[in-house]
Amino acid sequence: MPDISPRGLTRLAFGGDYNPEQWPESVWQEDVRLMREAGVTMVSVGIFSWALLEPAPGEYDFGWLDRVIDLLHDHGIRVDLGTPTVVPPVWFYRAHPEALPVTAEGVRYEFGSRGAICHSNADYRAAAAAITTALAERYGDHPALAMWHVHNEYGVPVSACYCDSCAAHFRRWLADTYGTVDAVNEAWGTAFWGQRYTGFEQINPPRATPTVGNPGQALDYRRFADATVRENFRAERDLLHRLSPGVPVTTNFMTALSQCDSMDYWAWGREVDLVTNDHYLITDGRRTHVNLAMAADLTRSVAGGAPWLLLEHSTSGVNWQPRNPAKAPGEMARNSLAHVARGSEGAMFFQWRQSRRGAEKFHSAMLPHGGTDTRVWREVVELGASIDTLSALGGTRTEADVAMLWDWQSWWAQNLAWRPSEDHDPRERADSFYEALYDHHLTVDFAHPEADLSAYPLVVVPALYLMTQAAGDNLRRYAENGGTLVVSYFSGIVDEHDAVHEGACPGVLRDVLGLTVEEFSPLLKDERVRLTAPDGPALTGDVWSEFVVPRGAETVWTYADGLTAGRPAVTRHRTGRGTAWYVSTRLDAQGLDAVLARAAGDAGIAPRADLPRDVEVVRRSGTSGTYLFAVNHTAGDTEVPLDTPGTELLTGERAAGRLAVPAGAVRVVRLDG
Ligand code: GLA
Ligand code: ZN
C-alpha cells in the first residue's frame, strides 16, 4: 500500500489550490509574503492551466509558470504541480468536437466549463499525454516539486460518456472481460425480455430506453466507465514516473461524497502513490462533523491505513449548494484537525486567494476578498501555526476500533431501477450506522467485503446488497472465528452481475445469520412498525420490514405490528466462536444504538459513557509516539479522561488525569512514554 510523502516536505502540509493566472503578476509577491505569514508549506498549482500553457497545438508558454514555481521555491513553499488535463483548451475541442462527452439521451456537451471529456477519445488521450510529457520534461526535477496532481476529481462532473467511441471501447472491454458474447448473455440474463445478443458489435452503452434497461448492462457500464477513467490516470502516472522519478503522483479523490459515487476508490487507492482527498461539508441539516469523520476514515481505509492528505476543503462557505452557510468561528480549525486526527498529513484548501471572476467567486478561500483584516484570514494564520506545531506526528497511524464494510460496486448495483422500495437508500444506512458508531466514540475502518477482517472485534454491514460468494464466505469465517457481525436488511442479495444468489435470500449470508427471508415487505411512506423485546426497549422501524424465518438464530426483537407482526425483526446467531446479528427493518438512531450496544457487548467492547457524543476522541500512534486528539464540537467546555499523562501540543501545557477541552476547541496530547 502507498506510504509516500510529498517530496521535500518536512512539515505537515498546509496551503491550498493556488491559481496565480487569475491575477496580475504584481499580486504574486503579496501572495508569497502572505503564504509565509500563514505558515503555508505547499500549494497546488496549474490544475486548470492548459489553455495558458499550450495556447496553440504544440506551442508552449511556460514562462509564467516558471516564474510562479521559482517564486514559490524562493519562499520555501513546496509545489504540488497539476497536469491540466481536466480542461483541454477550446482549440482542442474545435479540432476534435467528438472529444466532448455525450449523455445517455444523446446530448453532446459544449465547451465552456470544465471536465467535459470523453475518456475513450483517442485525440484527448494523445493531447493529455503531450501536455503531461511537456510538463514533466520541464519541471520533473525542479527542486520545488513535491508531487504531481494528475487531473482533478476524476468522475465529476461527467461520470460516463455514451458516445460511439465509448460504445466501441465498451465492446472491447466486454470481450476482454467475458471472452464470448454468450458469457455476456449469461451474466446479464438477456433471456429476460428477449435481449439476447449474437455478436459484440450489437452491444451499445445503456443509452436511453423506453423503460428499465438491463441491470447487468448498466452495472457493467459503471465498471467500464470507472476502468476507462483509470486507464487515463494510469497513462499520465506512468509518464510522470518515467520522466520525473522519485516524485509521488496523486489525484484528488472525493471518497465519501454521495454526489460522487462513480469511482471505485478501492481500485483507485492501489494506483496512486499517495491517497489525497477533497471534502466539503454538505449542509443538509445533518451533523456535518460526522460526515467529515466518515470521509476521513474512508479515505484512510482506501489508503490501506497509511497516512493520506486532505488536498481540498473550505475555509468557510462553498458556493455550489442551494444554501451555503459560512463556517462558525473555530469550525475551520475543528474540521482541519479532525481530518488530521483521522490520518491526514495536513490540511489544504480550495483555494488560496478568493477569485474575483468566474464561477467560484463566492466560494470562500484562505485569503478572502476582504484581505487580511478578516476573521477568516486570522483563523487561517492561527491554524497554520497549530498545524506546524503538530508536525512531529507525521507518519503516525490512526487507531481504529471497529470495521464497516463498504463497496462502491454494491452501491452502484443497489441504486439501479426497480428495487423493492425507493425509500431504501443504502448510503443513508451507511451514514446512520456510522453515526451510531461515532456516537459511541468508536473509530471506524472501512473494509472491502472480501478483506481480512480478523483484526476487528466488531464488523458492521449496512445494506450491502451486492455481495460475492467470496465476500459471504469471508463473513462466515470471520464470525465463526470469534468475530461479531451486525448486518442490515437487503444485504448479500445478488452476485457481481446483479443476479439473485440461488435459493432463499439473503443468499450468501443465510448460513452466517442463521435465517432466511421469505419475503421483503417494504412499508408505505410514513408507515412505522414497532419492535418489542422481553428484555429491551421498544424500537421503531420504517421503510422496510421482512418475513424472517429463523434457522438457528434467536429472536431478540419481534415485530409488534404491521404485516409482519409476531415475526422476528432483530435476530442474533451464535455461530462457531462468534455472533451474527441481523436487523430486518430500518431502525432510527435510538434503535441502532440499542442493537449496536448489545453487539458491542458480544464483541467485548466497553461503551464509553464518560463523554458527550459530540466530543470526538481519536488516537494516532507510531514511532514518534501516541497522540490523543480531542475535538469538542459542542458549545460547552468539557473534560476528557486521560489514562496516560502527556503534553498538550497546541497550548504547550501538561495534561494529566483530565484534559480540559473548551467549547469548540481542539486539543492534541502527546502521551508520555
Ligand atoms: C472541487 C474542485 C475545486 C473547486 C472546489 C470548490 O473540489 O476540485 O476545483 O471547484 O470543488 O468547492
Ligand atoms: Zn465517449
Automatic annotation (TrEMBL):
Q: What is its EC number?
A: 3.2.1.23
Please tell me whether the keyword Metal-binding is annotated for this protein. Answer: yes
The UniProt annotation places substrate binding at R114, N152, W320
Query: Would I find Metal-binding among this entry's keywords?
Result: yes
Q: Catalytic residues?
A: E153, E312
An annotated Gene Ontology molecular function: beta-galactosidase activity
Catalytic class of the enzyme: hydrolase
Domain of life assignment: Bacteria
Residue intervals of the Beta-galactosidase trimerisation domain: 400-605
InterPro entries the record matches: Beta_galactosidase_C, Beta_galactosidase_Trimer, Class_I_gatase-like, GH, Glyco_hydro_42, Glyco_hydro_42_N, Glyco_hydro_b
**Keyword field:** Glycosidase, Hydrolase, Metal-binding, Zinc
Q: Which Gene3D superfamilies match?
A: 3.40.50.880, Glycosidases, Golgi alpha-mannosidase II
Q: Which residues bind Zn(2+)?
A: C118, C161, C163, C166
An example Pfam family from this entry, by short name, is: Glyco_hydro_42
Q: Which GO terms describe its biological process?
A: galactose metabolic process
Which intervals hold domain Beta-galactosidase C-terminal? 614-671
Glycoside hydrolase family 42 N-terminal domain: which residues?
Answer: 17-389
Catalysed reaction, written as an equation: Hydrolysis of terminal non-reducing beta-D-galactose residues in beta-D-galactosides
| PANTHER family assigned | BETA-GALACTOSIDASE GANA
Q: Which family does it belong to?
A: Belongs to the glycosyl hydrolase 42 family.
Protein known as: Beta-galactosidase
The record lists the organism as Streptomyces dangxiongensis
